[in-house]
Specification:
- The strands form two sheets. This protein has a five-stranded mixed beta sheet with strand order 2-4-5-7-6. A two-stranded antiparallel ribbon has the order 1-3.
- Among the domains are: about 60 residues; about 170 residues, Histidine kinase-like ATPase, C-terminal domain (Heat Shock Protein 90), CATH 3.30.565.
- A hairpin with a 3-residue loop joins strand 4 and strand 5.
- Helix content is about 60%, strand content about 15%.
- With about 350 residues, the protein is an alpha+beta fold.
- It is built from six helices and seven strands.
- It is elongated.
């Protein structure tokens, strides 16, 4: 409050830190009103300063949380890559075991026939070396029979070598070659190979595991435009799970009679059907089935009903991604707990661009 009322004096007062200005004479009510106003302004200013401090702290906390979140996300991505790599290695193990079985049989034949040929050759040479005079009719007949056996052995070796070569070429074509690329493929052959590889992989770990496999392939299907390597992996995952369920039920019910008085017989049904624009594949087993409380989760990443160390929980998730996401198909499952499980796959004949 001052008696100075010039504009210059008012400006000077504000420049010195005044927040208001009232000149004499003044009214008491006006002074009190201005005081109350400035007290409110002071309180509001302090509140604003506190809110600013709080907001600043909150921003800093959120920035720290964001950094931690990014670090956690990177760790999760790294863990996911490791688990996916583990799942791929598991698939590779299934492939390797199945391939080993497919090659072992023809190679065993080659080995046995080769050993037999060596023995026949040694016997023939010994018979010839022990003769001091020209061979008689019996000796010539023996030589002829021995040479015939050697020829048959050589033909068998050639036949089984071609079989081994065919297995290798088939695997190269359907599993490794053309990875990630769409190409016309024989669906029935692709599925049949997956069934053999998955089944024989299980047989490697348990020699007593035997499954009756019923195959019903629709020959009119012909070729489909698919990513053969990935689809092969999807089929192997489904068949391997079926074999796991059959093996589990077999061990659980071994030496036990069913209600019909028959020993449990592990059975797998594989069927393809031409539906025109699409193709249907059904893979059914009479294993343990899937519990109703988890049926909705089986395609979720990292979900598994297998004991720790026996499954990553990514097999069916990757299978769903390959069939539905990559190939534009459908994947459904029907199950009767304790009795059976059937996977129903549909694939379009031509992948959309």
């Amino acid at each position: 409050m001052t008696a100075l009322s010039d504009t210059t004096d008012k400006v000077k007062g504000f420049s010195l830190g005044a927040v208001d200005y009232i000149t004499k004479p003044f009214q008491q009510e006006e002074v009190l009103a201005r005081v109350r106003l400035h007290m409110k302004l002071h309180v509001l200013t302090k509140t604003l300063e506190q809110q600013n401090i709080f907001l600043k702290n909150e921003i800093e906390q959120r920035q720290e949380a964001e950094v931690q979140l990014q670090q956690t996300l990177q760790q999760l991505k790294s863990a996911q890559k490791q688990i996916i790599a583990k799942e791929k290695l598991a698939s590779l193990g299934t492939l390797t075991a199945g391939i080993a079985h497919e090659l072992r049989n023809p190679l065993n034949f080659v080995k046995n026939y080769a050993e037999g040929s060596v023995e026949l050759t040694e016997e023939l040479l010994a018979a010839i070396n022990n003769r001091s005079s020209p061979p008689n009719a019996d000796t010539l007949n023996y030589i002829k029979l021995t040479l015939t056996d050697l020829r048959d052995n050589a033909l068998s070796i050639h036949q089984h070598s071609r079989r081994a070569e065919s297995v290798i070429q088939s695997i190269m074509q359907h599993t490794w070659a053309g990875r990630g690329q769409r190409q016309a493929s024989d669906l029935n052959a692709l599925l049949d190979q997956a069934v053999k590889l998955a089944y024989h992989s299980r047989r490697v770990s348990d020699k007593h595991f035997n499954v009756t496999i019923h195959k019903d392939y629709d020959a009119s299907i012909g070729q489909l435009e698919v990513v053969g390597a990935d689809l092969n992996r999807a089929f192997i995952n489904i068949v391997d799970n079926a074999c796991y369920a059959l093996l589990h039920k077999q061990k659980r019910s071994q030496q036990e009679l069913s209600h019909e008085g028959q020993i449990f017989a592990p059975t797998l049904w594989v069927k393809t059907q031409n539906l025109g624009e699409t193709v249907e594949i059904r893979i059914r087993d009479n294993g343990v089935g899937i519990p109703s409380q988890v049926i909705e989760k089986i395609f979720h990443p990292f979900f598994t009903t297998k004991p720790t160390g026996e499954g990553t929980g990514l097999g069916l998730s990757l299978t769903h991604d390959i069939i539905v996401g990559q190939h534009g198909g459908t994947l459904q499952v029907e199950t009767k707990p304790g009795a059976s499980t059937e996977f129903i796959i549909t694939l379009p004949r031509v992948l959309s661009a």
